[in-house]
Automatic annotation (TrEMBL):
Name under which the protein is recorded: histidine kinase
PANTHER family registered for this protein in UniProt: PHOSPHATE REGULON SENSOR PROTEIN PHOR
Gene3D superfamilies the UniProt entry points to: 1.10.287.130, Histidine kinase-like ATPase, C-terminal domain, PAS domain
EC numbers on record: 2.7.13.3
GO biological process terms, semicolon-separated: cellular response to phosphate starvation; regulation of DNA-templated transcription
Keywords attached to this entry: Kinase, Membrane, Phosphoprotein, Transferase, Two-component regulatory system
Gene Ontology terms for molecular function: phosphoprotein phosphatase activity; phosphorelay sensor kinase activity
Organism: Fischerella muscicola CCMEE 5323
Length: 438
């Protein structure tokens, strides 16, 4: 009986030991393959081997934590703001720059709170949701109005222009980089004010100089009179430059201030512009080709629209080769007809102006409507066939900028391209409020 009891207890003990060994081997099997011992370590006893692998896990954990700390230190000292939210729009992390831009006062590193509780910005929430839904980086610029618990302090806070660039992360998280554009906006406004003040101050002395030159023209004889004529041309160019700058500044400040909308027939307006440019076109033997409807009534400011066609056609003539052609094509867009002949929805007018020159350089296309942008020098007429001096600079660099502002004032759009067939410069703009056409 004693022997039977001994054997029974031994059997139970062996069974328990085998079960523990199986569980231990399962735990060891869960260790990542990258952390398992090398073949040379297989001979180690079980417990030392387990301790060795636990030590490697701790080392890798410390290494990963050090990498995280380094990235956080970089983002904390970055010159741009950065914040990160989880899939429920809870703030996970926010550096000092972002806290200052968004006026975040009730958040400390390590806290997880809803972004909406900390920052009252519909634009920022919308940007994050769009990034998460589309799984693509998004860019948005808006005027941010800080919110404060104290009403008196809220009156002292000034709105700032922010620009955010978001990117989708794993597990529904979103990271957002923030830039404060307010300083750049104020610098540009100060620059524009300085240029406008300077332009105002230049008008009086330039007018006086022109009167003096007019007096000299009647008193100086050939061959010296050509120098006075040249001086008159340069003075007129300066006066035109000053006037264009003042006009552009007024359009940017209040685009609709000078608009006098009235029914305007587009085809006849283009003909009037071409008549005024015909001497220049005849000099270079450039012809105009019109394609499109004849009678197009547009609710627009006729004088401003005249200025648009004048600047664009003048540029096309100057950059077209001798004997070249300029094509003006008009189209009526967004017209839906019912049983009657009248459109059921307002129509848009698309105007395409294509010259036969060398076109724009690819690097110039994003900048052709900027102030004083001269563009690639290759887009000029051959100097050997010019009758004027090679030192003469044609244009002020403000014509296309003024054209763009006039189009925007009419709630239209404009873009510059190169025509895929002719290779020439292609200006396309769209204006709303077509009243009738036949």
């Amino acid at each position: 009986m004693l022997v039977f009891s001994f054997l029974f207890g031994l059997t139970i003990g062996l069974g328990v030991w085998i079960c523990q060994m199986v569980q231990l081997r399962r735990l060891i099997g869960k260790i990542p393959p990258s952390l398992k011992s090398q073949p040379s370590d297989v001979a180690l006893p079980l417990i030392p081997r387990l301790r060795h692998e636990i030590a490697e896990l701790k080392q890798q954990q410390l290494y990963l934590q050090q990498i995280i700390n380094n990235y956080q230190a970089l983002l904390e000292s970055a010159p741009v703001g950065y914040l990160q939210v989880d899939e429920e729009n809870q703030m996970l992390w926010c550096n000092q720059q972002a806290r200052e831009m968004l006026y975040v006062q009730r958040w400390q590193p390590g806290q997880i709170r809803l972004l909406l509780e900390l920052v009252r910005s519909y634009e920022l929430d919308q940007l994050i949701e769009q990034t998460r839904d589309r799984q693509q980086s998004q860019i948005k610029e808006w005027v941010f109005h800080p919110s404060c618990e104290n009403a008196a302090a809220m009156l002292e806070q000034k709105p700032v222009v922010l620009r955010a660039t978001s990117l989708p992360l794993s597990q529904g998280e979103v990271g957002v980089f923030l830039e404060n554009r307010q300083i750049l906006l104020e610098i540009n406004q100060a620059r524009d004010r300085a240029f406008s003040d300077l332009a105002h101050e230049l008008r009086t002395p330039l007018t006086s100089i022109r009167l003096v030159v007019e007096t000299l023209q009647d008193r100086i004889e050939a061959p010296l009179d050509r120098w006075v004529d040249r001086l008159m041309q340069e003075v007129d160019r300066l006066i035109s430059l000053v006037q264009s700058w003042l006009e552009l500044t007024q359009l940017e400040t209040d685009p609709t201030l000078k608009l006098n909308r009235q029914p305007t027939e587009v085809r006849s307006l283009i003909s009037k512009v071409w008549e005024s440019l015909e001497p220049l076109a005849a000099r270079y033997q450039v012809q105009l080709i019109y394609k499109g409807p004849e009678n197009i009534l547009l609710n627009a400011d006729a004088s401003r629209l005249y200025q648009v066609f004048l600047n664009l056609l003048d540029n096309s003539i100057k950059y077209s080769p001798f004997g070249g052609t300029i094509t003006v094509e008009t189209k009526i867009l967004n017209v839906e007809n019912n049983s009657s002949t009248k459109p059921t929805t307002p129509a848009n007018l698309e105007v395409n102006i294509v010259d036969s020159g060398v076109g724009f350089a690819e690097a110039d296309l994003p900048h052709v409507f900027e102030r004083f942008y001269r563009g690639d020098q290759a887009r000029t007429r051959d100097k050997t066939v010019e009758t004027f001096s090679t030192t003469t600079v044609v244009g002020s660099g403000l014509g296309l900028a003024i054209v763009r502002q006039i189009i925007l004032a009419h709630s239209g759009s404009i873009k510059a391209m190169n025509h895929p067939i002719t290779g020439g410069a292609w200006i396309q703009f769209v204006l709303p409020e077509v009243m009738a056409n036949s």
